[in-house]
Amino acid sequence: MDTKESYAVVTGASQGLGKAFVEHLARKKINVILISLPDQNLKELSSELERLYEIKAHYYETDLSVHENVMKLTKWLNSSFEIHILINNAGLGGTKKFTEASSDYINTILQVNVAATSLITHQLLPNLLRQPKAYILNVSSMAAFSPIGFKTVYPASKSFIHSFSRGLHEE
Ligand SMILES: NC(=O)c1ccc[n+]([C@@H]2O[C@H](COP(=O)([O-])OP(=O)(O)OC[C@H]3O[C@@H](n4cnc5c(N)ncnc54)[C@H](OP(=O)(O)O)[C@@H]3O)[C@@H](O)[C@H]2O)c1
Question: Is-above-0.85 flag for pTM?
Answer without folding.
Answer: yes
